[in-house]
Amino acid sequence: MSQKIINPSTSVAPAKHSDSTGYDYTIGPQQTLPNAPSLSKATTSLPSVYNESLHASARNPQVSLAAYAFLFQELVTQARNASKSVSEIELRLHRNGYHLGIRLLELLNFRSSVSPGSKNFFKPGNSSQGVNVASSAFQEDSLAQGIANMKRRDLRMVEILQFIHGTVWSYLFGRVGDDLVKSSERENEFMIIDNSPLLTRFISSTNVQCDFFVCGIIEGILDSASFPCNVTAHSVPEQNFDQKVVFVVRFEPQVLEREALRS
Amino acid sequence: MPCYFAIIGAKDNPIYEAEFTSPQLNQFPPELKELNPFILHASLDIVEDLQWQTHPQAGGNTSTSGGFLRSRHSASNSNCYLGKIDHFYGLAITAYLSYGNMKFVMIHSSNSNNGAPVQIEDGPVKSFYQEVHELYVKTLMNPFYKLNDPITSPVFDNRVRALAKRYLTR
Amino acid sequence: MPLSYERYMNLVLHLDSALEPVPQEISRKIVSGAVSPVVTVTSNEVLDQHIQDSYGFDSLYMLLRHFGDCVSDRDQAESDIVEDEQEASNLNPNVVTRGRTRSNSLFQRSSSQFLRFTRPLTDLIGTRESHDLLFDYHSLEVFLQQYLSLVEQKTTANTPHVLLQHSLYHKFFTTAISSTSHLSPYESFNHPVASLLALDISKDQNYEDARDLLIAFKNMHNNTPHFPAFININDVLPVFLLCFQENSREQFEACQSLAKMLKKQLFVESILLPCWNENKETVSCILHQPVMSSLEETMLSMMKNDQYELPLPLINNIYDRLTTFTEELMIPFMKRKISFWEETILQPRKSIFPNSKFFRKLMAKSPTPSTNNDSATHNSQGLAYFAATSNEFLLRKLADWSFMLSDFKTAYSTYDLLSKDFEVHPEYLAPCLEWCALSVLMGAQSIVTVKMIKNDIDPLIVRALKSYELSACRAKERNNILKSKSLPSGSKESINATGSDKNALSDNTSAEVATSNPHQSAQSYETRCMLLAAELFLSLSDTWTATPYAIKYLETILNECSIGSLSEIVIWERLAHCYALRVDPRIKGKVSSLENRGLDEPEKAPEEAYESDVESDDDNQPYEHKIQQDCIASIGLTRKRKSTLFRLIAAKKWVEAKQWRQAWWTYKDVEAMYANLNFAHRKGTILERLRKDIQAHET
């Protein structure tokens, strides 16, 4: 698509501001600090993602299941219409999830660094109106100020998988995953088990595995955390859980090697 | 003290760079200015080494020759802020890692020209990094932003410079 | 032709070998060469004249010095042969059939025998420089400058340069560590081990001449003014070299009978060298300069640019005789001396004081007040020198000689023992500690562990450096005292000179110490120490643990030592090499060979694969959106980027020094490393600027 949209967080072309044009990667670093705070007024008063808070309670953390399902259904439909084969549908879903995963890794870890008793309280009301109305009161409101120590980065396969199984699952589905199992056959294989997947609960068994969306999320998280892997989803209906899904995480051998080198 | 700050993506590509100088402070001399990106690039080797060290202090690789590999923050069990990781002829280099392994790195130059090694105040530097990290996460939340792309937003730029003013150049 | 020690060191003259890998043991070979036994060559006018007439050398020494270095390599014999190819190839099998197998010291595990030739001892003492510098930064710089222009002449921009750059560094290294034939009172590496006394039989020189030569030699310490007290002529092995006409039967017989007589009456062995041959139809070889020669001599030969030729049979003859000389005379002599010193000095000490500090202190204290018993000789400035016959100096010699003979274990233990004796003499302590550390590094192949480096070797070197510093400070203090009473001390000196001629240190030396800047001179020793240590650290097999130390010392040289700008650049390049070597041994196999840098880049620069646009319609590549990562396992276990930075700086400095050929080569490497990094190729970056600068001069 066009370049304009990719310029994040502002609809105004940056070139219009002669004072501060932002970062231009073709030129490199630019010098000097803003001398006067007024300099930045033009840009800071604009609606921007930077005026939003990352705090977990900045938005209503819950959406109705109906809306969730409806959105997901649209996603699947769109993928289906654009694709020629089943695997292509799955791939598109996977890709959608992947981009989500990249963001979730940063966001959720950052949020869990914020101690609950943080003095940075959330002011409700403003954000519900979305990006169109931004308040300058948010300018100085940063969560980072209240963080004493950032959460530890996960360095081992088990650690990062526990993060997915726990934190990510609760964020996405409101509960932790049902099980996390290490394959007995292959060193680099792990399984995250979900007995009743939330996303696909209204999708009756088809030959399209819609859980590939979640695979994408997992893979996005793991990849961007430098644990390159392949994630696939397999339906394993059981007596009590006829929709039970097993997400098989297959790490690249290099990850194992690194862990061996660094242990 | 003048600083050169960059966020480096997975392919060693800077996605954001800035120099924090102001008229009252010393500037980077021109010959250093053109080397800055390369000096930072060189210290990525050490960032990556520390990135995967599970016990930064107990690491058998850490040699006594000061400054080769050093991490002071293993005590707090937090491994995002790596502290001073490298030095290059009077310049100090600090680093910070985001959860998606974006590398935040910065060259600190000393105020004086006498070549004395720079003293890093870990507190403010760490706060700076954390705040920039937050801004970065916000950038990432933008669905139109792609990972590893340059961050061209003037708002981001302004915010970072304001932070630098608050924490670094005093 | 396979790469040999000499071919590597003079690679610029043998460009056909430029693609070979860097020889592994090269730094140890160089160190062995640099401390190899010194042989003085004493000739006489008749012989020198004869040599000059037939071969064009000024003297026998000028001829023989080309045969230094590793004798068993016979490297002069494989120099460019003057005659046409046909004859040369006819001749080569001959060499083999005659049973002269030529060894290649580069590929030998065992210590090969190196030799160095110098002028007669009297000359050495007479021409001692007025300063105590080990290095002369200026001439080292001039040398580099000349060598670089030679490289520029002989090569093109596209010459494979990797090995050449290594060779250049080692050339610099060799010159720096052996840049002087200065006789130091503190170590005995430059002191002669043997002396060749040459006679010309073809000119009818006979027993009388030989006896006179020997008497002059034996009485040298009495007849030479300012003969240093730290040299004992009895520790130098005299050997007669009888030169004769090869075709003449009677001369040969005369030589044999003379040799017998010399042995019987003077107890001196002789070597018979057929020096001349009437048969003119032999192949000639152009001689090349010896690798290990003092800086002044190298400079001199570079300026003169003379080329000498010798007939191949003569070259082979000389090598044969030298092999006999080292194997049958010199080495046995050294071994005899070593075992004698071991029995008479080392053993009693070891048995009396089994590491008891108490006893040693007692012993150290008692002799000091009474000057008579003290083995150290004091001169008018209160500077203590150990005479050549003192136990301390003999032990030092024992250690040095063991080092020369590659018995690093004995060398280490003796240095270690000595370092305790020398605690109050920093100027002796410093080199002692230095060589103590070096003997560990030289002797160890793969057994050096992190712990050893950290707890033993490195502290030794640090202590050595500190002692050098301390000795410089003391010398400075002395100088100040001297200056304050310059007149009286001068008169005292003259009294001293007349009063004691043998035992006292030559006044000459004390005057030198007074005049030269002690800091400078100590620094030159420090620089040598660090260069040696850095290079030997690099030669250890576990480069991951050892390179940081090498880097530390090289950086210290850059920061603190005064060296010329070209030398600095060479060290910058070496630093880049050090970082390139810093690879965790566990991943060595995975990381592409470092020596092939510039040739294969896929390792460093994998294909850029960005996430695909979400809206992209191209779905052929299923995982295009994935983040591509390379070398996950080896991440952080190399220092390649660091290496590139240092190379970049070196390139920049080459440009500043206007050494365009070197700049271009280094730049090529740098560019290959940064090839896939966009930030490096922005407008106006240093890379672009360098390229423009270089391309204006190099094509």
How would you characterize this protein structure?
- Chain C: InterPro entries: TRAPP_III_complex_Trs85.
- The complex is a heterotrimer of chains A (263), B (170) and C (699).
- Chain A is α+β, with helices and mostly antiparallel strands.
- Chain A has a domain of 138 residues: 2-Layer Sandwich (Muramoyl-pentapeptide Carboxypeptidase, domain 2).
- In chain A, 37% of the residues are buried.
- Chain B is globular and about 45 Å long.
- In chain B, helix 3 runs antiparallel to helix 4.
- In chain B, strand 4 and strand 5 form a beta hairpin.
- About 12% of the residues of chain B have low confidence.
- Chain B has 170 residues and is an alpha+beta fold.
- Among the domains of chain C are: 278 residues, no CATH class; 126 residues; 62 residues, no CATH class.
- Chain C is built from 26 helices and ten strands.
- The two termini of chain C are 30 Å apart.
- About 13% of the residues of chain C have low confidence.
- Chains in contact: A-B, A-C, B-C.
- Chains B and C meet through helix 2 of B and helix 18, helix 22 and helix 24 of C.
Largest interface: A-B, 59 and 65 residues
Which structural class matches the secondary elements of chain A? Answer: alpha+beta
CATH fold field value of chain B: Beta-Lactamase
The Cα radius of gyration of chain A reads 22 Å
CATH level-4 homologous superfamily of the domain at 87-114 and 153-262 in chain A: Trafficking protein particle complex subunit 3
**Overall 3D form of chain B:** globular
Q: Hey, roughly how much beta strand do the residues of chain A contain?
A: 5-15%
- Determine the structural class of chain B based on helices, strands and strand pairing: alpha+beta
What is the fold named in CATH at topology level of the domain at 87-114 and 153-262 in chain A?
Muramoyl-pentapeptide Carboxypeptidase, domain 2
Total of helices of chain B: 4
Write down the Rg of chain B: 15 Å
Main location (chain A): endoplasmic reticulum
Protein name (chain A): Trafficking protein particle complex subunit
InterPro entries (chain A): NO_sig/Golgi_transp_ligand-bd, TRAPP-I_su5, TRAPP_component
Region (Disordered) (chain A): 1-25
